[in-house]
Structures are given as C-alpha cells and as structure tokens.
C-alpha cells in the first residue's frame, strides 16, 4: 500500500548508460526506452530510436540502477512539519535515487489509529513525489502498554508496525504483538534498546566517551534486547525486522537467530557503515549524535561483514530531520538523528565501494532490498516493468550541503564531506521525480 501524487508517465530514451541490476544479472551498457512510464525495450548501445515526443538522456559514462527503496524514514508529519513534511521528505528521497520510502509513526499524534493513517495516506496522494508507505505503531501513543488495533490498521494500509524511537520494552506486550502480527500480517519492526542500560547516554560507551566525559550507550543495550525479541519471535513464530543495527554483538545476535530459524531480518544505516565514534574526537558536532550512536571501528567492520554475508538484509537511512535551532544545542541536549536520504548512495559508494571494500552491485542490491521486508515488489530493470530507475554519475564529486538540501532539515552527518557519486535523475512509479540541476535533458 503505497501512495503518491499522480505523475506524468515518462517517455524517455536513456542512451548507452551502464545498466547494473544485480537481481536480474544485467551489468553492461544499454539503451533503455521508457514509454508511458514502463520499460518498453532494452537494446545494445545506439540501437534504439527515440519515438516522437520522447526525451533523450545521454547516459554514456553514467550508471543506471533499479530505484532505491528505504524502509525507514521519518517524514515528521503530522505535527512536526517544521522539521519535514511529505513534500520535502519525498523531494529528498527522489534526490537520493529513492523510488519508495516508508514513514515511521512517531509523529504528533502518533500513527496509532486507522483514521490518522487514512488521512496521512490521503495527504501522500496529494504531496508525495515518490510513493510512500507507512508503518503504524505497536502500542497506543507509543506508551509501551496497550496494543493498537493491528488488524484494523492493516486493513487501513499499514505496511507493518513499529514503536521506532523506542523499544517495545515489556516482553509480554511484544509477545502479544507477535500473536496479532501472525494473524494480521505485516512485519514488526523493532528499535532495539534497553532503556535501563542506555539511560541518559548520548554516544557510544567506549574509550571515546570516557575521554570526552560523556555518558555512554553500551552496545549490549541493543544486543540483549535483540536476543530477547528473537527468542520471543521464534517462540510465537512471528516475523520481526531489526532496525538500525549498530553493534558487533547485535550482528552476532541476529546471525544466531537466523541460524536458529527465526523469521528475522535486519537493516543498517549509511552512517553506521561509514563513520565511527572517533569522528566525535575531531568535533563534538550534534549532527553526529544519533540513536543508536556511532560505535567503534570493530562494530563498523562487523556491520560490513554482515552486509556481505547476508546477516544484514538491507540498507535503511533512518532519515531523521530536525530543525536547525533544535540541533544548535550543547551536545548533551541536542535531539538524536541525522538526515540521510540525499547522501546514502554517495556516502557508501565513497566510503566502501571506491576503496574496494564492497562491490558496487552489493550496494545497489542492498539499497533496494528493503522492499521485500515490507512485502513490496523489488525494483528491476526489465522489459514490461514500471520504470523505477536511478541514473548516477559515479565520477562526479560534490560537497555535501554546498547547495543546500531538498530536505527541510540540514542535520546531515556527512555535511561538509566530499563524496563521489551523484544522482542525476530518478524515475519513480513511471514518472520523472528528480533531475539534478546541472543535468541537461535533450528533447528528441
Ligand atoms: Zn529507531
């Protein structure tokens, strides 16, 4: 159940771009013809003619991927539109190459009832530039006590459930939620953090927090809750998805649960794959404050290994916009979160693909595989499929934030860094959702 505003179906000929679709095994230059929003034909470079009225995009030297799908973003509406809304959030998504995103329910009010969800979906049909889906909360008002009407929320279009921002702290409540989830369908997405361990921590607990004299959030606050919830999911035969994995111990907990046959999937964020708490030694920048926190190098290495071996199923940004005045606070007081939609591809491409740590195909695959976790169709570059595409210049270098952001917020943890890999155009749900400013499109 995804919603977006109506788009004009695209008629495009993308000439000679290197098409990389890891799932269908295409990895070579092609002409790609899009007619009426559908992929009409793939041909050898120079073999396809642009039909009357179609736009021609010179793709030579550029790469064309299946569009990215993000199962974890905060669009902040209703109630926190000073941070972001559906229009600005999906603008940012399109600029990052995303063709679908899934919004979290920790808004004001919380998305915990069918009327709130239905009005949000209606808003998405007016404003969303790329299709948007929504998760509903597990507990009413995120209070951790009383379950929402999960079956009714599913009927209203909830893709799944989460109390993201908070854990489902009481095991008995999660057990009940798993029982309902089995009946209602949809996955239970879990923010794993034991608040009795994370306490007032503002960063990863380790040598850097000790040096800075800041309260830490230990890795075990995440991994112990994953172990508990995996045991419950196994016992109830429910299906869970672990959000924003950050620690080595958490990777071990997920791997053990998978080996034991639990229906469990996991995501990792671009920032946890590319940054560590050492960045805070250079500058105590509130843009580097997020939950879960940036952890140690050994954690980062464990996350990369887990992405490679399949323990981690997908990459999710946890795009968490905040207003400038909210982040312009002392580190201890600033809210947690970083934006991520506009930088996800380039951050990981620069941090992991360029140095040869992971192959490009793995990055492309994991940026779109989140769709499957929420039972959404996987994007693919195949004849007859709706066009969900992203065109990227892998050679282009850019400074994050230099021309501002499409997002309403500017709390990006990669701000000021020079990244390689620039999204030039995004086609979402068959329509052109984004074109980079300097990128020219020639009419046929
Ligand atoms: Zn979270």
Number of H/I helices: 15
Record field, number of beta strands: 19
Poorly predicted runs are none
Query: What small molecules accompany the polymer chains?
Result: zinc ion
Report on the biggest sheet: 9 strands, mixed
Percentage of residues in strands? 15-25%
Distance between the termini: 36 Å
Level of helix content?
25-40%
Rg, nearest Å: 21 Å
Task: Choose one word for the global shape.
Answer: globular
Mean pLDDT: 96
Structural class: alpha/beta
Structural commentary:
The chain is an alpha/beta fold and 444 residues long. The protein contains 15 helices and 19 strands. The strands form three sheets. Strands 1, 2, 3, 4, 5, 16, 17, 18 and 19 form a nine-stranded mixed β-sheet that branches. Strands 6-7-8-9-10-13-14-15 form an eight-stranded parallel β-sheet. Helix 4 packs across helix 7, helix 7 packs parallel to helix 8 and helix 13 runs antiparallel to helix 14. It is globular, with a radius of gyration of 21 Å. The model has no long low-confidence stretch (mean pLDDT 96). Bound molecules: zinc ion.
Task: Label this structure with key terms.
19 strands; 444 residues; alpha/beta; 8-stranded parallel beta sheet
